[in-house]
Amino acid sequence: DNTYAGIxxxxxxxxxxxxxxxxxxxxxxxxxxxxxxxxxxxSTGTEVSNNTLAWNARSGVSVIxxxxxxxxxxxxxxxxxxxxxxxxxxAPNTYGEFWGEDFAGxxxxxxxxxxxxxxxxxxxxxxxxxxxFSWNRNISYLAAFDLTPGEQGGSYLTDAQKDxxxxxxxxxxxx
Length: 175
What we know:
Layout: E1 7-10, E2 16-18, E3 21-23, E4 36-41, E5 47-49, E6 52-54, E7 59-65, E8 81-83, E9 86-89, E10 95-101, E11 115-117, E12 120-123, E13 133-135, E14 138-139, H1 142-145, E15 155-156, H2 159-169
Parallel strand pairs: 1-4, 2-5, 3-6, 4-7, 5-8, 6-9, 7-10, 8-11, 9-12, 10-13, 12-15
Antiparallel strand pairs: 13-14
Protein backbone atom coordinates (compact mmCIF):
# COMPACT_ATOMS: atom_id res chain seq x y z
CA ASP A 1 0.00 0.00 0.00
CA ASN A 2 2.86 2.43 -0.74
CA THR A 3 1.91 5.51 -2.71
CA TYR A 4 4.83 4.98 -5.09
CA ALA A 5 7.00 1.88 -5.54
CA GLY A 6 6.81 -0.87 -2.97
CA ILE A 7 10.60 -1.31 -2.94
CA UNK A 8 12.92 1.10 -4.74
CA UNK A 9 16.63 1.06 -5.46
CA UNK A 10 17.81 4.35 -6.94
CA UNK A 11 21.23 5.45 -8.26
CA UNK A 12 22.95 2.54 -6.53
CA UNK A 13 25.48 -0.20 -7.18
CA UNK A 14 25.31 -3.97 -6.74
CA UNK A 15 21.91 -4.18 -5.07
CA UNK A 16 20.26 -7.45 -4.11
CA UNK A 17 16.47 -7.38 -3.85
CA UNK A 18 15.36 -10.90 -3.01
CA UNK A 19 12.63 -12.87 -1.24
CA UNK A 20 10.28 -9.93 -0.71
CA UNK A 21 6.51 -9.63 -0.97
CA UNK A 22 5.09 -6.39 -2.40
CA UNK A 23 1.47 -5.79 -3.34
CA UNK A 24 -0.96 -2.94 -3.96
CA UNK A 25 1.73 -0.29 -4.55
CA UNK A 26 2.23 2.62 -6.90
CA UNK A 27 -1.24 4.08 -7.30
CA UNK A 28 0.10 7.59 -6.57
CA UNK A 29 2.34 7.43 -9.67
CA UNK A 30 0.62 4.99 -12.02
CA UNK A 31 2.30 6.10 -15.25
CA UNK A 32 4.84 4.52 -17.61
CA UNK A 33 6.95 2.03 -15.59
CA UNK A 34 6.57 3.89 -12.30
CA UNK A 35 4.15 2.52 -9.73
CA UNK A 36 5.91 -0.85 -9.46
CA UNK A 37 6.11 -3.49 -6.78
CA UNK A 38 9.91 -3.29 -7.19
CA UNK A 39 11.58 -0.38 -8.98
CA UNK A 40 15.25 -0.36 -9.99
CA UNK A 41 15.92 3.22 -11.06
CA UNK A 42 19.21 4.35 -12.61
CA SER A 43 21.23 1.68 -10.82
CA THR A 44 23.81 -0.84 -11.94
CA GLY A 45 24.75 -4.41 -11.02
CA THR A 46 21.40 -5.18 -9.39
CA GLU A 47 19.81 -8.59 -8.91
CA VAL A 48 16.04 -8.88 -8.37
CA SER A 49 15.03 -12.46 -7.55
CA ASN A 50 12.52 -14.72 -5.84
CA ASN A 51 10.02 -11.95 -5.04
CA THR A 52 6.23 -12.22 -4.97
CA LEU A 53 4.48 -9.21 -6.50
CA ALA A 54 0.76 -8.63 -6.94
CA TRP A 55 -1.84 -6.00 -7.70
CA ASN A 56 0.67 -3.16 -8.24
CA ALA A 57 -0.43 -0.15 -10.28
CA ARG A 58 1.92 -0.34 -13.28
CA SER A 59 4.35 -3.24 -12.99
CA GLY A 60 5.59 -6.13 -10.93
CA VAL A 61 9.25 -5.23 -11.55
CA SER A 62 10.38 -2.08 -13.37
CA VAL A 63 13.93 -1.33 -14.45
CA ILE A 64 14.20 2.32 -15.48
CA UNK A 65 17.25 4.11 -16.85
CA UNK A 66 17.33 7.88 -16.80
CA UNK A 67 20.05 10.33 -17.81
CA UNK A 68 20.79 11.37 -14.22
CA UNK A 69 23.32 14.20 -14.22
CA UNK A 70 23.36 14.14 -10.41
CA UNK A 71 24.81 10.59 -10.36
CA UNK A 72 26.90 10.17 -13.51
CA UNK A 73 29.13 7.48 -12.00
CA UNK A 74 26.41 4.80 -11.94
CA UNK A 75 26.52 4.72 -15.74
CA UNK A 76 26.57 2.57 -17.69
CA UNK A 77 23.61 0.70 -16.28
CA UNK A 78 24.87 -2.86 -16.62
CA UNK A 79 24.54 -6.28 -15.05
CA UNK A 80 20.90 -5.98 -13.99
CA UNK A 81 19.36 -9.43 -13.60
CA UNK A 82 15.64 -9.99 -12.90
CA UNK A 83 14.80 -13.66 -12.32
CA UNK A 84 12.58 -16.21 -10.61
CA UNK A 85 9.96 -13.68 -9.51
CA UNK A 86 6.19 -14.20 -9.44
CA UNK A 87 3.93 -11.37 -10.60
CA UNK A 88 0.11 -11.27 -10.52
CA UNK A 89 -1.64 -8.59 -12.58
CA UNK A 90 -5.36 -7.78 -12.52
CA ALA A 91 -5.77 -4.80 -14.88
CA PRO A 92 -5.16 -4.52 -18.64
CA ASN A 93 -2.16 -2.47 -19.71
CA THR A 94 -0.28 -3.18 -16.52
CA TYR A 95 3.19 -4.62 -17.01
CA GLY A 96 4.28 -7.94 -15.62
CA GLU A 97 7.84 -6.70 -16.17
CA PHE A 98 9.00 -3.33 -17.51
CA TRP A 99 12.41 -2.28 -18.87
CA GLY A 100 12.57 1.32 -20.12
CA GLU A 101 14.73 4.38 -20.50
CA ASP A 102 13.81 7.95 -21.31
CA PHE A 103 16.94 8.88 -23.26
CA ALA A 104 19.28 7.29 -25.79
CA GLY A 105 21.21 5.30 -23.21
CA UNK A 106 22.68 1.81 -23.17
CA UNK A 107 20.17 -0.18 -21.07
CA UNK A 108 19.27 -2.34 -24.08
CA UNK A 109 22.80 -2.78 -25.47
CA UNK A 110 23.71 -6.49 -25.52
CA UNK A 111 27.14 -5.97 -23.98
CA UNK A 112 25.60 -4.43 -20.87
CA UNK A 113 24.32 -7.86 -19.73
CA UNK A 114 20.91 -6.61 -18.56
CA UNK A 115 18.51 -9.52 -18.65
CA UNK A 116 15.76 -11.56 -17.05
CA UNK A 117 14.85 -15.23 -16.81
CA UNK A 118 12.43 -17.74 -15.35
CA UNK A 119 9.91 -15.19 -14.14
CA UNK A 120 6.33 -16.43 -13.75
CA UNK A 121 3.28 -14.32 -14.45
CA UNK A 122 -0.45 -14.46 -13.86
CA UNK A 123 -2.83 -12.09 -15.64
CA UNK A 124 -6.56 -11.83 -14.93
CA UNK A 125 -7.30 -11.70 -18.66
CA UNK A 126 -6.10 -13.69 -21.68
CA UNK A 127 -3.46 -12.51 -24.13
CA UNK A 128 -5.59 -10.20 -26.26
CA UNK A 129 -3.26 -7.55 -27.66
CA UNK A 130 -3.08 -5.38 -24.52
CA UNK A 131 0.56 -4.89 -23.64
CA UNK A 132 1.96 -6.90 -20.73
CA PHE A 133 5.71 -6.41 -20.92
CA SER A 134 8.27 -3.86 -22.05
CA TRP A 135 11.77 -4.25 -23.40
CA ASN A 136 12.43 -0.94 -25.16
CA ARG A 137 8.83 -1.14 -26.48
CA ASN A 138 5.47 -2.43 -25.29
CA ILE A 139 5.01 -6.16 -25.87
CA SER A 140 1.67 -7.98 -25.74
CA TYR A 141 2.69 -11.64 -25.73
CA LEU A 142 4.97 -13.65 -23.46
CA ALA A 143 6.40 -15.58 -26.43
CA ALA A 144 7.55 -12.26 -27.95
CA PHE A 145 8.96 -11.03 -24.62
CA ASP A 146 10.88 -14.32 -24.28
CA LEU A 147 12.70 -13.42 -27.50
CA THR A 148 14.26 -10.36 -25.83
CA PRO A 149 17.06 -10.30 -23.25
CA GLY A 150 14.41 -9.01 -20.80
CA GLU A 151 13.06 -12.53 -20.33
CA GLN A 152 14.19 -16.04 -21.11
CA GLY A 153 12.09 -18.99 -19.99
CA GLY A 154 9.18 -16.96 -18.67
CA SER A 155 5.91 -18.76 -18.04
CA TYR A 156 2.31 -18.23 -17.04
CA LEU A 157 0.81 -19.52 -13.81
CA THR A 158 -2.53 -21.27 -13.63
CA ASP A 159 -5.20 -19.82 -11.35
CA ALA A 160 -4.50 -22.58 -8.80
CA GLN A 161 -0.74 -21.96 -8.86
CA LYS A 162 -1.28 -18.21 -8.40
CA ASP A 163 -3.66 -18.77 -5.49
CA UNK A 164 -1.25 -21.17 -3.76
CA UNK A 165 1.77 -18.88 -4.16
CA UNK A 166 -0.08 -15.76 -3.02
CA UNK A 167 -1.63 -17.53 -0.03
CA UNK A 168 1.79 -18.79 1.06
CA UNK A 169 3.09 -15.21 0.87
CA UNK A 170 0.11 -13.76 2.78
CA UNK A 171 -1.17 -11.84 -0.24
CA UNK A 172 -4.89 -11.61 -1.07
CA UNK A 173 -5.89 -13.81 -4.02
CA UNK A 174 -7.49 -10.78 -5.70
CA UNK A 175 -6.92 -7.01 -5.44
